[in-house]
Amino acid sequence: MPNGPQIILTLKVLVVVVTILLLASLVALALKRPRLHGHINTAFFVLTMATVVGFEALLQWVDVASAFDPAARAALHTHLYFSVPSALLLPAMIISGKMRLKRLHLALAVVFTVLWTGTVITGLGLPN
Ligand code: HEM
Question: Is ligand 1 within 6 A of the CB of residue 98?
């Protein structure tokens, strides 16, 4: 069973990897390649969902109280307040993008950008 620091380090690496994908998808948009943006974000969606679900599942197995000190537990909670709503928004992002509901997609993108920025800041700031 992985220990607390191993779990947090893995989480940080995954957050960085998927954020690079998200940034690449925005570069694709800037290059007027919306289909590529969609393909990259489909990968972003799958990886992010797998990370959040896998992480939540892992927390059920790991003895959270002994793996993380109170400061780490509080920081993890704050992180989950951003990452879980981000993940919940992702299906709506995929659907609104695929259905070309551009106004809805862009409105959701604003909320998503705020939540994702919070996810990255609180994720990379976790003590490990
Ligand atoms: C965060 C900022 C984002 C911005 C500014 C943005 C913007 C856009 C824009 C302008 C389009 C083209 C819409 C059209 O021409 O009707 C688009 C398409 C799309 N977006 Fe996003 N998007 C963002 C994030 C995401 C995310 C997070 C996802 C999925 C997880 C996503 C999935 C898609 C998909 C699937 C398409 C359709 C691509 C296609 O034409 O096949 N987008 N997006």
Answer: yes
Name the nearest CA neighbour of 26 among 118, 93, 84, 122: 93
pLDDT tens-digit readout, 42-89: 999 999 999 988 988 888 888 887 888 899 899 989 999 999 999 999
pLDDT of residue 4 exceeding 90, the answer is no
For 48, the domain range is 4-124
Helical axes 34-61 vs 70-98, angle rounded to 10°: 150
Cα–ligand 1 centroid distance for 91 (angstroms) = 12
Q: Is 96 in the pocket of ligand 1 (CB under 6 A)?
A: no
- Regarding the beta carbon of 93 and ligand 1, being less than 6 Å apart is answered yes
pTM of the predicted structure, to 2 decimals: 0.93
**The amino acid at 114:** V
The structural domain count of the chain equals: 1
What integer pLDDT is reported at residue 108 of this predicted model?
98
In short, whether 52's Cβ falls inside 6 Å of ligand 1 is no
